[in-house]
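Recall that a protein's primary structure is simply its ordered list of amino acids. Everything else, from secondary elements to tertiary packing, is in principle encoded there. The following example makes that idea concrete.
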Amino acid sequence: MSRTVIRGGLVITAADEIHADVLIEDGRIAALAASGTPAAGAFTAERTIDATGKYVIPGGVDGHTHMEMPFGGTYAADTFETGTRAAAWGGTTTIVDFAIQTVGRSLREGLDAWHAKAEGNCAIDYGFHMIVSDVNQETLKEMDLLVEEGVTSFKQFMAYPGVFYSDDGQILRAMQRAADNGGLIMMHAENGIAIDVLVEQALARGETDPRYHGEVRKALLEAEATHRAIRLAQVAGAPLYVVHVSAQEAVAELARARDQGLHVFGETCPQYLFLSTDNLAEPGFEGAKYVCSTPLRPKEHQAALWKGLRTNDLQVVSTDHCPFCFTGQKELGRGDFSKIPNGMPGVENRMDLLHQAVVDGHISRRRWIEIACATPARMFGMYPKKGTIAPGADADVVVYDPHAEQVMSAETHHMNVDYSAYEGRRITGRVETVLSRGEPVITEREYTGHAGHGVYTPRSTCQYLD
């Protein structure tokens, strides 16, 4: 039996803050006791971690990553090995990545391909969602089987005609199936048919720079698709989770649906909270670094996103980590913004940026843990194994220094990408030590983990629907 004690830190969960010592046995949280009490003094262990003056928080759960994802003739730059190592550096101990169904092929074939990419390569634990690109009778039957084996969420796209796009009929059929089998439909909500018309018209006018990516993917077309997805889910009697919400008009649609008592959930990402169309408009071709979909919005949208996080109209912050190097990948779109691979790096930055949001007064400490750890774990059927510090939970624990300052930079990050979306940004707070199931992955700012430690984690259904 291996034992670790973390002493003297402020333990923060979504529900509580308490100065407590944490006892870990065989990869799980065994007990907590108030620091300095006889109960805490009775904790004995081979390894002691001093967390005095630090936070002790659950490892982050990033419910939206794309490692090794094929897109636009290239692949996301992070492998499961490099991406999960970078996640650990940033205090994230579980990711849920997206397996992709190829049109004309089965869900099973897509899922097996992603298992093969990840198995034996991950530094932290991982699960999968399933991208459903081809809704037919066989696909619908397979959805039932996947739910039974722990792949309990399915992503559909109202965008990208000819690639991942599903029409309203296909979406309705998948939602009806999810209503029956307990699955959760995740939606990329943008009107891709209309966007393609605007792209064609912009290029015809000679508007080819990266900033036009943001101009053609209009906030109103995100709001329209969000509204349509909500109503289709309502018709089907199914829950809905809208990914990467970026526009204040889309937040308003979610808030309205939730006020009506519908099982509708929303996720946003750090890039929408901290970056804007000003970045897309950076001179030269620099704006290509910030091309992602949904796109960055004008700064005034940020206030609505922060408010949504405070009022729980938005429940989760994930990264949509899908990195493409500037050199050789983003450059595929020089002269044609529609050919820039869509996606940004971020899996390493999320926990730190959200701590900066605490420092800046946007959210509380407990809300930080709620939107980054506890709620994604519940949303995707992994709580309380993941997302909290409580007896019986996996010992996925981060010792976090809330006073350390750092400057974010591609020079120092661990993601396999040649730029940082936050280059030069000075923030307060930094990960010091990370345990995954009790094993040190980061030890006082040194990487001590290894590929293959992370294991596949089957998930139960969304715990907000029980």
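The radius of gyration is 21 Å. The mean pLDDT is 98.
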